[in-house]
Specification:
The protein is built from 14 helices and 12 strands. With 338 residues, it is of the alpha/beta class. The radius of gyration is 24 Å and the shape is elongated. Keywords: DNA-binding, Transcription, Transcription regulation.
């Protein structure tokens, strides 16, 4: 009696009524498959007991079935900033149902950058997701030179050439400041992120645009640079109050910095929102647990994580496509701080 033949991709395709390319796309987690076809393939796999031979597939395709999520930040920043955990959740959700493994890599110093460069040059992963992008970061340029599929959460500048996804940072900041103007606030300051990050520059531009619409001057004394940390927000708020003690509102470019600003206002005996109104950006868990709860701009961070993952899987599965630039909408969430 002959042994039962092991099912192949061809067998699965015949059972599902689709082509072998479609089966391969489902196995590789490509988003370029309809829900109906995906369901048919998954049903056929279950009925036939098909087990993909990932080792054989990798030998043929030079695929590793893994991607890297690179975050050039320290462990302390990763743990204190809810943005990063939300992106990681979104990426994980984007990989659900695929056989792709996720490698999380922090880059904290030059030694780790050199190590990562060697790793990527050896093409140990099929693609890279890069978060927390700085203008002069050499990594995006290296990835582009290597031709390694890459998607950024954010961008180096408005002229970004790589696939990237970001929230409507200008529009969100503009909405925040318009809200403060509508509340009757006259002297509206801002706490910005690092000057070498497009996200910080875009939110600063939104602040300027909204003040210009209202016929207000975007005075340099009302701008306080910080670093997206709580302590940075506290120091920036202290400096603003020293320069402009009569200010009655502040837009912070992140909820974490807004929390620091609230702490400094409380220390100096300023009431929120009676004396000074405060708006943040992110609508992270931080915004719901400040005192008072924080008015903020909601950005869909988990959706950013899912979207960058979908774009990366598409580029891995169908290389050479048109580069994608996706902007996700924001919305204002009004709470007690304004």
């Amino acid at each position: 009696m002959g042994a039962t033949r092991r099912p192949t991709i061809k067998t699965v395709a015949a059972r599902a009524g689709v082509g072998r390319t479609t089966v391969s796309r489902v196995l590789n987690g490509s988003p370029l498959v309809s829900d109906e076809a995906r369901a048919a393939v998954q049903t056929a796999i279950a009925e036939l007991g098909y087990v993909p031979n990932s080792v054989a597939r990798s030998l043929v395709t030079s695929r590793t079935d893994s991607i890297a999520l690179v975050i050039p930040e320290s462990e302390s920043r990763l743990g204190s900033e809810p943005y990063f955990s939300a992106v990681i959740r979104g990426v994980s959700n984007g990989l659900a149902g695929t056989q792709i493994q996720l490698l999380l890599t922090l880059v904290r110093d030059q030694r780790e950058m050199d190590q990562l460069t060697r790793f990527l040059t050896a093409r140990r992963v099929d693609g890279v997701l890069l978060v927390s992008v700085h203008r002069d970061d050499p990594l995006p340029g290296l990835l582009e030179e290597l031709g390694l599929p890459t998607v950024l959460a954010g961008r180096r500048s408005p002229a970004e050439s790589l696939n990237h996804v970001h929230s409507d940072n200008i529009g969100g900041a503009r909405d925040a400041v318009r809200h403060l103007v509508e509340r009757g606030r006259r002297e509206i300051a801002t706490i910005t992120g690092p000057a070498d990050m497009d996200v910080a520059d875009s939110r600063l531009r939104g602040w300027r645009d909204a003040l210009g619409e209202a016929g207000r001057e975007a005075c340099g004394e009302l701008v306080a640079p910080a670093d997206f940390t709580e302590e940075g927000g506290r120091r920036a708020m202290r400096g603003l109050l020293e320069r402009r003690p009569g200010l009655d509102a502040v837009f912070a470019a992140s909820d974490v910095m807004a929390a620091g600003a609230l702490a400094e206002l409380r220390r100096q005996g300023r009431r929120v929102p009676d004396d000074v109104a405060v708006v943040g950006f992110d609508d992270s868990i931080v915004a719901r647990h400040t005192d008072p709860p924080l008015t903020t701009v909601r950005q869909p961070v988990e959706e950013i994580g899912r979207t960058i993952t979908e774009l990366l899987l598409r580029e891995i599965g169908e290389p050479g496509g048109v580069r994608q630039h996706v902007v996700l909408p924001t919305s204002l969430v009004v709470r007690d701080s304004t």
